[in-house]
Amino acid sequence: LPGDFVIKQSKIRGQHSDGMLCAPDELGLGDDHAGLLILDAATPVAAPINDVLPPGDTVFDIEITPNRPDAISHLGIARELAAWFRKDLCHPQVKFRGETHGHRADILADIRVESPEDCPLYVGIALACVKVGPSPAWMQERLKAVGLRPINNLVDVGNYVMLEFGQPLHVFDAKKIGGRQIVIRRAIDGEKLTTLDGKDPMVVAGIMGGANAEVDATTTDIVLEAAYFRPQSIRWTSKRLGLASDSSYRFERSIDPHGTLEAAQRAVDLLLETAGGTVVGPSFKVGGVQPWSREIKVTPAFIRERLGFDLSDDV
Fold this sequence. Notes:
By secondary structure, the chain is an alpha+beta fold.
């Protein structure tokens, strides 16, 4: 077994045993050692274990260069592969398009961006009556496959969509948001905030959430944050504070701001699926991004000039 543990004949309660009942961690299937791994009662005796347990996965370890932030996501890699192999890109289906059920200003009343140069786009969506618990097994397995530890359904959805879209997300416990409003601004001299890893930096936007608004087992109403933060600001702050995270890794390399809203909508779908609840108004979208305006023109003459030899236009 994993850890070079060898199963051998032993005597248990006066009886000889040639086998062993195992916990998930003893089989390398997770960290759970609280109890034995119980198979479905309909599992036939002597069935190959590979036919009973979930199938294994293939994990690609890809090193991304700093100039390819578009590839720091599963969709980014899939887009590259689709282009190379001339295949259609299978995009996650997004169902939520902004519909809300009722107005709950007591959950989130206002979002104000006082530093638009650092945060050109901010999206905030409120969900009421969610239930905190473990995320589904399929989501936990996918997170563990890429080295992330599952925490709960709310946090796991944020991490899952970040890996999928490359868009960092954050979930706030609504009852811990002072004044029921979110203000995006630069820190005041001497201001402190305890982050989720227990440190006390002054500025954490786009880097790490604060411990004073994190979700816990008592959370029932949440606010989902999806934003675009200026890469230079995140890079400077991260280096100055010596504080880095999966979010800062992506923000400082520049995420695609045109995918921010879609990533938030995808997260809402998964939150409703895994934690229940309803989306309530008002939803906020502060700021925006400019549409792509760059046009690249390539002519046969341009290609021939760069190659240094003649080619027909048909090539």
